[in-house]
Amino acid sequence: MDQEFTEQEIESARKLFAGRCDFVVGVASLDQLPESGFQEIAFAGRSNVGKSSLVNALTGRKTLARMSHTPGRTQQLNFFNLGDALYLVDLPGYGYAKVSKAQKKEWDTLIRAYLRGRPALRCVFMLIDSRHGLKDSDLEIMKMLDETAVSYRIILTKSDKTKQDQRHKLETDIVPVLKKHGAAMNDIMFTSAHRETGIAELRSVIWRYTL
Question: pTM of the entire structure?
């Protein structure tokens, strides 16, 4: 990622994420959405991509977002209030084969309606497992984001489990794909919740959405 941050920005982001981050509501239908009092950023990704681990690493907490080895555990839109400055929204995991077609359709309908009808939503951070790269289910979500005109960034998770040449190949493979998607930002980030790689930089990216 070419984006650079000043020491002041990194420190401001650190302070924001070191402060309060409270669970607000789990939304299973649009009528349960909280009033849009803050700007929002959302996290999306395939089941077991490491989404909960990344959210916990960002906030310095171990149990903010429930971690589970059972894919498909997050079945609603979970809203967290980050220091009265921003809503963090944890979207249901996608791409897990054992989810029923009816459940998948229900989730897709909810997510699409949220993306299309939420003016406060500034960006979706789309998490991709760096060991596997883009899958068909990721491309489906990217198409949905393009159709709803919601900006999104690719975040490569679990980078501690890949080698430098693998990460380089991922970048050369993914960036040209992003250029074909109108709502995608062309830069990508590598992160590791385990080693906290890229966490300070990702906090700073998110912090800028509070301005």
Answer: 0.90
